[in-house]
Amino acid sequence: MAQLWGGRFTKETDQLVYNFNASLSFDNKLYKQDITGSMAHAAMLAKQGIITEEEKGTILEGLKGILADIESGALAFSPEYEDIHSFVEANLISRCGDVGKKLHTGRSRNDQVALDMKMYVRDEIGEIDILLKELLESIYKVMDENVHTYMPGFTHLQKAQPVTLAHHFGAYFEMFKRDRSRMADAKKRLNLCPLGSGALAGTTYPLDREFTAEALGFDGPTLNSMDSVADRDYLIELLSGLSTIMMHLSRFCEEIILWNSNEYRFVEIDDGYSTGSSIMPQKKNPDIAELVRGKTGRVYGALMSILTTMKGIPLAYNKDMQEDKEFTFDAIDTVKGCIALFNGMIATMSFCRENMEKSAKNGFTNATDAADYLVNHGVPFRDAHGIVGRLVLACIEKNISLDEMSLSEYQEISPVFKEDIYEAISMKNCVEKRNTIGAPGEAAMKQVLALHKKYLEEN
User: Fold this and answer.
1) 108 catalytic residue (yes or no)
2) Burial of 422 from C-beta contacts in 10 A (0-12 / 13-18 / 19+)
């Protein structure tokens, strides 16, 4: 097939070169954005008197027909076309005749693809935001139901202090809330319209770029035509944000994998989100959590790829930039799938509350509170720290918890201890005393839950 740019050339492109150069196999994802942008461009050309109202009507009717036929399956993408732009334009010309050839007046494929990608990314950010909000609602539900579910908090993967399941899940609520904000920031920055920038230096036609920007839902036109066609910062921001989402999902998955193990037994993953072993009948594997954890590297790879592609490109457009699409599309699809599956997993997961509380007790997570007890009875903190260290050592030797130690055993190490030590180091008291905002105590947690509920209602 003769190319739309073929006038300069005296022979056909080598087939291998053509295949290497072509992008329709993946940029066909942009068909809706390409047609929508073309319709706005045609309307602007008519408004400016560059084409007639009758020509505009013919072009718009042709573009609507192409869109309907693609979506119904009546029109298939054919490899004879180089990219989505040439596919749409060639089909328009075949339907409308010479009038279709006027659509490309005042624009280049360079500003066209920049427009299409921005519109596609903007739409996908909206889809990702919906998924993140659904995930936050699932996390909120777990928090609201587990204000009094005591469990160990960890540092260095060592049991540290008692917290609640609500408090632990609340940490991830904050992470995914920031992810929504990060995506919204990226969407705001990309929302300037490059259409009308031409190949790199604008055009001599009297285009109304403000008109097309408004028609397509942008905040305004871009202000430098070279940057307009050479900018892929918004993709770097997008992929950075997606990588951060995946990092948060991966951390959460790692904890669920640990909690699902026989050693922890904190959670029971629903059968619908688990698999078995082909040889070991007792196994119930957390495959979804493991796959989400694994796919994180795939999204990181997309970020590294765009950074490497863009680092040495001079202004303005270069063909290298065609490499922005495949991994961006893949990263978006990967993240959307991972959020949806992860959300389903935690929404159906059950929690072994007794095991969690028992683990907190057996891990000496109340040791700090025992030290605080001594401090509140006049013992200097450094001395209290040493006394409780001796208590823990004695418990380890006897294979008991601090709760199980007798009062006489306490008093052998320090006479300061009295009967009220047991209340002071109970899981409930250890948690409920911590009520500064952001802490796991009931009063503090309910205050945070109220703020989260308001956030979900307003955003």
Assistant:
1) no
2) middle
Looking at 72, 240, 277, 359, which residue is catalytic? 277
Selected catalytic residue, list 72, 156, 278, 406: 156
Residue 308 in contact with residue 237, Cβ under 8 Å? no
Instruction: Classify the C-alpha dihedral 348-352-353-359 as positive or negative.
Output: negative
Question: Catalytic annotation on 406?
Answer: no
Task: Give SS3 for 152.
Answer: strand
pLDDT at 1 (0 to 100): 46
Locate 270 and state its tokens: 């629903």
Kindly report whether the global pTM for this prediction surpasses the value 0.85.
Answer: yes
Q: Which residues contact 57 (CB under 8 A, 6 or more apart)?
A: none
Q: Reply yes or no on whether the pLDDT at 219 is more than 60.
A: yes
Q: How far is residue 213 CA from its own chain's centroid?
A: 27
Which alpha helices (H) appear in 74-164, and where do they start and end? 84-96, 109-145
User: Residues 331-362: pLDDT tens digits?
Assistant: 999 999 999 999 999 999 999 999 999 999 88
pLDDT of residue 16: 72
What tokens were used for 268?
A: 């029971």
CA 357/CA 431 separation, integer angstroms: 12
CA 88 to chain centroid:
32
* Tokens describing residue 406: 């007798």
